[in-house]
Amino acid sequence: MQVRKVILNIHLTLSLLAGLFIVVLSLTGTVLVFKNELTQAMYPELFKVTQGERISYQDAQKSILSQYPEAQFLRIYTPDEPVTGGAFQFWINNDGKREYVYVDPATGNILGTLDESAFPNKLSVFHRNLLLEKYHGFEIVGIVGFMFTFILISGLYLWWPGIKSMAQGFKRRKATNPYIKKNDLHRLIGVYSIPVLLIIAFTGAVYPFSEKILGWFGTGWTPPAQKLAVQVKPEGRLPVDELVRLAEQTTPSSKATLIILPAKPEKNIDIRLTRSYDPGAGHTGNVKVWMDPYNGQVLEKWDPKINNVFYQTWVFPLHTGAYGGIITKVLYSIVGLMPSILMFTGIYIWQYKKRRRKKQQAEVQLNAS
Question: 118, 3, 103: which is closest to 55 by C-alpha?
């Protein structure tokens, strides 16, 4: 009984401390599950692509440079990446400002641009760091995730009715008492949503600390710097199209979805490929190829079928629900609403018990006098 009381107090304390943050992150996450669809609905002009043979990456870059002469190219999301809706999406640095330029893959015409002020992007940044980037907001979100994980596990412990009464733990009692009704609602929503909420909470908790966690196992988000060393050559880099072709040759039946371009002359090019089943639904690809941009040599390749990159491949899809397509996305979106109900029913239960204790103490004092 003493252990149960301690766990109940921790459950309550963490819920009061982190409850509002959990609700905000859950609600924003519910929307961001459909970030791609939201972007396409809000800015349909960016995705009105022309059918036809795809132009080269170089021609698409020339089209952008004609409008943004000083643009520095950072990334290219290809038309095979679901987030682009069939267009080229170029990330550029334009006069110190990041912009996302959409290019028609058949004509090379610029369809439009977005920047960080676009609602889906702003919401994504808010969800990531609560607008506290300068104050370790990303890490704060991770800590909230760990608190939420413990709240869920402790809630499961408090719910546990025992083996013999297991079936009763999944049923709602027939009662008119508001406290019993709220208590059962809290209990049942918690137990039915906990499998998905635990996945969301734990992946959200570890994600900000991934580099440190992966470091414990002698790996990281990328291979060691010495494996990716590049020698600058005066003849310059190979065309992006050639590098993509060489990267796709390393993995049969694959398509490039993301190209991370070298920020400096001595940096490598990072090409992500998607092949057959991709838990991230194409987002960043499930095969990663690092290449020398001057000669096309493969410096390192991470393939889930060959390398032990389970964490790097699955942590983000598990957090967003992308791994099961529309079914898991809808499920995650619905479950993301549950923490709000849990918080309000939890506050009601806490206040009810608090008022009842005060009433009992007052009665004891009255009887004693």
Answer: 103
Q: Compute how many other C-beta atoms are within 10 angstroms of the C-beta atom of residue 334.
A: 13
Helix, strand, coil percentages for the chain (3-state, nearest 5) = 55, 15, 30
Decide: 205 and 195 in contact? Cβ < 8 Å: no
> What does pTM read for this prediction?
0.90
* Residue pair 58/241 in contact by the 8 Å Cβ criterion: yes
76 pairs with which residues across the strands?
90, 259
**For the chain, what's the residue count?**
369
SS3 track for 85-107: CCCEEEEEEECCEEEEEEECCCC
CA 369/CA 360 separation, integer angstroms:
14
- Residue 50 is which amino acid? T
Q: Cβ atoms within 10 A of the Cβ of 173, count?
A: 11
CA distance 12 to 35: 33
Whole-angstrom Cα distance, residue 171 to residue 295?
Answer: 65
Residue 112 is encoded by which pair of tokens? Answer: 């439009």
Query: Which positions ≥6 away from 249 have C-beta within 8 Å?
Result: none
| Residue 313: exposure state from Cβ atoms within 10 A (0-12, 13-18, ≥19) | buried
Sequence-ordered list of residues with C-beta below 8 angstroms from that of 238, at least 6 positions apart, any chain: 293, 294, 295, 296
Distance CA 271, CA 264 (A): 16
**39 vs 317: CA distance, rounded Å:** 19
Please state, in angstroms and rounded to a whole number, the distance separating the CA atoms of residues 18 and 147.
Answer: 7
Nearest of 213, 43, 18, 220 to residue 130 by alpha carbon: 18
pLDDT per 10-residue tile (average), the chain, 369 residues: 88 95 97 94 95 95 95 94 91 93 96 95 96 93 98 95 85 86 93 97 96 90 90 93 96 92 94 85 80 96 88 92 92 97 94 86 76
For CA atoms 55, 261, 231, 68, give the dihedral sign: positive
